[in-house]
Amino acid sequence: MLDRDRSQRDGDTEPPTLVIRELEYLGPMATPKGWRPTHAYPEIAFAGRSNVGKSTLINKLVQRKKLARVSNTPGRTREIHFFRVNQDFVLVDLPGYGYARIAKERRAEWKPLIESFLRDSAGLRGIVMLLDVRRDPSADDEHMLEFLAELGLPVIVAVTKVDKLARSEVAQRVTAIAKSLGLDEEQVIAFSAVSGTGRKELAEAVMSLLAQPSWRSS
Ligand code: GDP
Predict the structure, then answer these.
(1) Is the distance from the beta carbon of residue 69 to the nearest atom of ligand 1 less than 6 Å?
(2) Domain contains 29
(3) Please, are residues 83 and 35 in contact by the beta-carbon 8 Å criterion?
């Protein structure tokens, strides 16, 4: 679990920030008023359009091969899935949205569920919003970010699949994506589940969100 090679390469001797000792699938939330875990733990949610690489990123983050597979099982992709990490927090896998071919009807399904979850989650500390490095943010991505901004929810943006581009192209794309969303480039984490790029930064960003008091109480 201790990423020694990377720590040494980066000249960074900080202890590991996210060590997974226990992982438990808690269950799905299927409707806006449906079952969800009680708020015993702080929550971090992961959002993004279908196929952005969300399941792969979650599995890489928690260093399990198949943790988020349940969320990609046919019939379950429209539910919100909850995973308890250690005795520390609950990882929330939101349904992937905005799949081009089925846009309109599906949007009517995911929007109320995601929005009611985000509105009513007392323990929610922040969102990791995923964007594919090769694509410009879609209207659904922008809608989601606007909604998060309205709620005042802290957001980490992770740009996925950066191994698919050369390093210089990644830098250009990160600049362009940050600019189009009005974000500082430093708020954007370049991530690849294939090379492991960004895993440590993302883990640290998640841990620092968890260390902050709930934004709702301020
Ligand atoms: P989800 O629908 O957002 O959960 O997306 P998945 O995690 O299922 O990934 C969608 C596709 O992108 C799959 O074919 C993955 O293998 C691929 N993928 C995901 N992450 C990466 C990555 O970091 N690099 C590359 N090259 N492919 C990735």
Answers:
(1) no
(2) yes
(3) no
Contact present, 53 and 193 (Cβ < 8 Å): yes
Q: Please, are residues 88 and 41 in contact by the beta-carbon 8 Å criterion? A: yes
- Closest residue by Cα to atom 28, ligand 1, is 161
Split into its structural domains, the chain has a count of 1
Residue 207: inside a domain, yes or no?
yes
**Banded pLDDT at 114 (limits 50, 70, 90):** very high
- Please name the amino acid found at residue 63: Q
Residue 216 placed within a domain: no
Q: For the domain that residue 118 is a member of, what is the CATH number? A: 3.40.50.300
- Ligand 1: which atom is nearest the Cα of residue 130? 3
CA–CA distance, 195 with 19 (Å, rounded to integer) = 19
* pTM confidence score: 0.89
Which among 46, 52, 56 is the best mutation to test ligand 1's pocket, defined by most ligand atoms within 8 Å of the CB?
A: 56
